[in-house]
Amino acid sequence: MVTIKDISERCGVSRATVSKALNGHTDIGAETIAQIRRVAKEMGYLPNATARTLKLGRSHNIGVLFVDKTGSGLKHEYFSSILDSLKVEAERRGYDITFISKDIGEFSMDYYEHTKYRNCDGVVIASVDFSDPAVIRLIASEIPTVTLDFVYDNRTSVLSDNIGGPSALVHYVYEMGHRRIAFIHGEDTSVTQKRLISFHKTCASLGIRVPEGYVRPAIYHDPKSSGIATRELLALPDRPTCILYPDDFSFIGGMNELERHGISIPNDMSVAGYDGILLSQVLRPRLTTYRQDAEAMGREAAARLVEAIEQPKTCLPQQIMISGQLLKGDTVKDIND
Amino acid sequence: MVTIKDISERCGVSRATVSKALNGHTDIGAETIAQIRRVAKEMGYLPNATARTLKLGRSHNIGVLFVDKTGSGLKHEYFSSILDSLKVEAERRGYDITFISKDIGEFSMDYYEHTKYRNCDGVVIASVDFSDPAVIRLIASEIPTVTLDFVYDNRTSVLSDNIGGPSALVHYVYEMGHRRIAFIHGEDTSVTQKRLISFHKTCASLGIRVPEGYVRPAIYHDPKSSGIATRELLALPDRPTCILYPDDFSFIGGMNELERHGISIPNDMSVAGYDGILLSQVLRPRLTTYRQDAEAMGREAAARLVEAIEQPKTCLPQQIMISGQLLKGDTVKDIND
DNA sequence: TCAGGTAACGAAATCGTTTAAGCCCGTTTG
DNA sequence: CAAACGGGCTTAAACGATTTCGTTACCTGA
C-alpha cells in the first residue's frame, strides 16, 4: 500500500507538504504541487479513508436503517427504489452507504451505538418500527438523521404525500361517478392513519357516505389479506362499486378474488392501488394507482442529510413533502350515467 | 466521546491494560478486568471501529457491488433477496456492509480503488456487467471476492443452478405431455447461455425437436419484450403448446398478450416462469416456475467470503452450486391423451 | 538465601493522515 | 538599514486503538 510517507520520501519533502499538495492548500509552491501529484499518480497512491476519518472525525459515510419486521424492507419495491436513489445521490455528494443493524457479531449494540462505532456522519431511517425505543434513541441523538414517512419532534423528515394520495384517488373515482367506495388499509402505522383520515375527510367533503364495513384492515404487501378483505366486501348487501387497495402488490389478492367471483375489472368492479410500482404499469388492464415518487424521496433524503452534516449551523430541520402523481390506468370505469 | 484513555485515567491503569482487559487477554488480573469492564460500561464506552481498522488493517466491513445497467439491481426481487440474506449472515459474523461504486464525490475511482479506499476486507459481486474491465480488475485483485452467478478463473463463486433449472422445467412439461416447447431467453450473458444450452440439451435428450423460431430473445425483467416474443410465437404456423419465460416478472407481458388473443392459461397455452419470486406465488393461476434459492445464495456468499477473509491460508477457492426447486403451479396443463 | 519463574501491568511505537505553529530566507517598507 | 512581511516548507502532535517488549514484585523450590 502506497502512503503519503512513500510519496514524501520519493519527492524529498515532508509528509505535511504532500498532504497539503494533495488537498489543494495554497501554501505550497506550484511546481512542488505538480511534482507531488505526478508522483502520487505514478505510484498509484490512494487516500486512506480510515486514517482520514480517525483524524478528522468525519467518515463521509452515512448509515441506513431499513428494517421491517419481515426482515429487511428491501423486498418492497418502494423501499428498494428509495434506497437506490438515496445511494446515487449520496455517492454523487461523496458519501458511501453502510447498513446499520443491531448486534454486529457477538457484540450486541443498538442502532445508536452501531452508528457511533462506525463513525457514520449521519443516518437515514426508513421502513422501521418507529415504536422501537432503539430507533427513537437514534433519532433523538446528536447524530444527524433524516426519517422517511415519520416525523419526530423537530428532526428533518421526508414525507410522501399520504394526505394528497388518497384524496386524489377518491376525487378521481368520484369524478368517474363512483359513490360507493371501499377502502382497504394496511397495518396501523402513522402512514396508514394519515391515509385513512384523508380518505374519510375527502369522502365527507364530497358528501359521500362511507357505510359500515366499507373500510377494512389488511396487511401491506400481502395479497392474501387483501383477498380476504375483498371477499368480505363482496359479501356486503350493498357492494361497493370501487375498491381502493393498500398497495399495488396487495391488489393482486383482490384481483384473484374478483376473478374467482367472475367479476370483471373494471366492468363489474373498479379498483385502484397505491405506490405505482413497476408491476402496476405492466398489468392489463393497467392499474389506476397513486405513484409515490420514491426516487425523489431517496434523493431528497440524501441531499438533506448531507446538508445537515456539512452545514450544521445554517441548516434548519424541516419536513419535506414529496408529492406523488395519480396514474390513471384502466381499472376505474366511468359510470356517470 | 469516551475513549480507552478516559477509562485508563479513571481506573488508574495504562491504556494498554484497558485494551487488553476489554479484549479478553489473559495477562490481566481478574479483578482489574472486572473493574475496567464495569467502568467502561458506566462511562458508556464504545470501541472505535475506525481506529481499530487503522491499527489492525482489518475493517470488518465487506463491500457489495450490485449494479446493473438499469441503475442498481435492487429492483429485482431476486437480487434484493440475495442482498438481504447476505446482510443478515454477514452481520451475524460481525461484518457490516457497504456499497461499492465508481466515482465517489468528485474523486473518480474504479471499484478496486474504492474498495481499498474504504479498507473493505472483501467484496461480494453480483448483478453487474462482468465484461466491465473495472469489475474484472477487482475480481482479479488480491482482495478476497465472491462472485455470484459468474466464474472467474480460480476465484470463489456462488452459482444458481442454471443447468438444473431449465432442465427441471423441460422435464416437467415433457411429463405433462408437451412436445412443442418454446423458450424465451434474456440478454446474452453467461447465465443466459447456460440456461439456453441446458434447454437445448434437455430437449435433445428427450428427443424433442426444437423448431426454428421457438427460441426467442427478450430482456430480463421486461414484460414488454417478452410480450413481443409471445406475439411472435403465436404467429408461428405451428404454435408451441408451452412457453417458458425468462423470469416470472417478464411473464406478465406474456400473460397480457395471451389474454389479448383470448388464449386461456393453461387450457389453451401452458406457461412457466423462472425465479420463484413472491409475485409468481400470488398470481392465479399460480405460476409454474423454478425457484432460485436467493436466500441461500446470499447466505453462502457471505459465509464463504468471511471464511476467505479470516482463514486465507486454509480456505480454498471453490464454486458453490445452490440448487433451486421446481414449483409446480397451475399454469402447465397435462395434455397426455 | 538466591536463582528462576510467573502473574500483572506499563512504555512506547505504530497504523496513515491532518494541521497548528514555527522556521528560513528573500523582499518590501518606513 | 533595520524591521516587517510573506511564501514555502518542516516539525511534531494528534486522532483511538493494539501490541511487542519490558519491568516490576512476588512466589517457589533447592
Report what the structure shows.
The structure is a homodimer of 337-residue chains. The first copy, chain A, has helices at residues 4-11, 15-22, 30-43, 49-56, 77-92, 111-117, 133-139, 164-175, 190-205, 223-234, 248-260, 278-282, 294-310; strands at 61-68, 71-72, 96-99, 122-126, 145-148, 156-160, 181-185, 215-217, 242-244, 270-272, 289-291, 319-322, 325-327. In chain A, the strands form three sheets. In chain A, strands 1, 2, 3, 4, 5, 6 and 12 form a seven-stranded mixed β-sheet that branches. Chain A has a four-stranded parallel β-sheet with strand order 8-7-9-10, sandwiched between helices. The first copy, chain A, has 337 residues and is of the alpha/beta class. Chain A is elongated, with a radius of gyration of 26 Å. Chain A has three domains: 4-47, lambda repressor-like DNA-binding domains (434 Repressor (Amino-terminal Domain), Orthogonal Bundle), CATH 1.10.260.40; 61-160 and 296-315, Rossmann fold, CATH 3.40.50; 164-291, Response regulator (Rossmann fold). In chain A, helix 5 (77-92) packs parallel to helix 13 and helix 8 (164-175) runs parallel beside helix 9. At the A-B interface, helix 4, strand 2, helix 5, strand 3 and helix 6 of A face helix 4, strand 2, helix 5, strand 3 and helix 6 of B. Chain B binds a DNA duplex (30 and 30 nucleotides) through residues 1, 3-5, 13-20, 23, 25, 27-29, 32, 47-48, 50-57.
Layout: helices, strands, pairs:
The structure is a homodimer of 337-residue chains.
Chain A: H1 4-11, H2 15-22, H3 30-43, H4 49-56, E1 61-68, E2 71-72, H5 77-92, E3 96-99, H6 111-117, E4 122-126, H7 133-139, E5 145-148, E6 156-160, H8 164-175, E7 181-185, H9 190-205, E8 215-217, H10 223-234, E9 242-244, H11 248-260, E10 270-272, H12 278-282, E11 289-291, H13 294-310, E12 319-322, E13 325-327
Chain B binds a DNA duplex (30 and 30 nucleotides) through residues 1, 3-5, 13-20, 23, 25, 27-29, 32, 47-48, 50-57.
